[in-house]
Amino acid sequence: MVADWRATLDALRKCSDVGDGTVGYWGLSMGSIYGLPFVAAEPRIQVAVLGLLGLVGPTRARLEADARTLTCPVLFLQQWDDELFKRQPVLDLFDVIASPDKRLHVQPGAHAAVPPEEFQHSVDFLVKHLGSCS
Q1: Burial of 75 from C-beta contacts in 10 A (0-12 / 13-18 / 19+)
Q2: Containing H/E element for 93?
Q3: What is the DSSP letter of 114?
Q4: Can you give the residue ranges of every domain in the chain?
Q5: Of 107, 133, 123, nearest to 47 (Cα)?
Q6: What residues contact 132, with CB distance under 8 A and at least 6 apart?
Q7: What is the pLDDT along the chain (134 residues), one digit of tens a residue?
Q8: Domain 2-14+22-130 is of which CATH architecture?
């Protein structure tokens, strides 16, 4: 899947309205399962928002190995009462992320109950690291 995401990024970079500027990644839950390996492998990704994911199940070994090589700034979101990913496996994943600039935001609530202000904070985090899109 990493090769597919890289090919997509290559194609996007050729679009005149995208260009070759800075690139960030935003993906929660399944977006982190697919995205974390891509972000870890792709040096053009300079910042990431990930989360709603823990070290469990068949993806555990891959995610743990990739997280150990993930060095771009990361904002990681966790829902304290997440019914899909219990607290400790989520914290375990956050702990192995290698980035010296990683932040964990925890909010009360279920997996799909991320508050709107947390989405805005994730946009602010990306803009801080990438610069304005205008």
Answers
A1: buried
A2: helix 87-96
A3: -
A4: 2-14+22-130
A5: 123
A6: none
A7: 899 999 999 998 888 887 788 899 999 999 999 999 999 999 999 999 999 999 999 999 999 999 999 999 999 999 999 999 999 999 999 999 999 999 999 999 999 999 999 999 999 999 999 986 55
A8: 3-Layer(aba) Sandwich (3.40)
Query: What are the structure tokens assigned to 18, written together?
Result: 């995208």
Instruction: Please give the model's pTM, rounded to 2 decimal places.
Output: 0.93
Listing DSSP states for 31-59 in one string gives HHHHHHHHHHH-TTEEEEEEES--S-GGG
> What length is written for the chain?
134
b vs e for 79-115, b when ≥16 Cβ sit within 10 Å of the residue's Cβ?
beebeebeeebbeebbeebebeebeebbeeeeeeebe
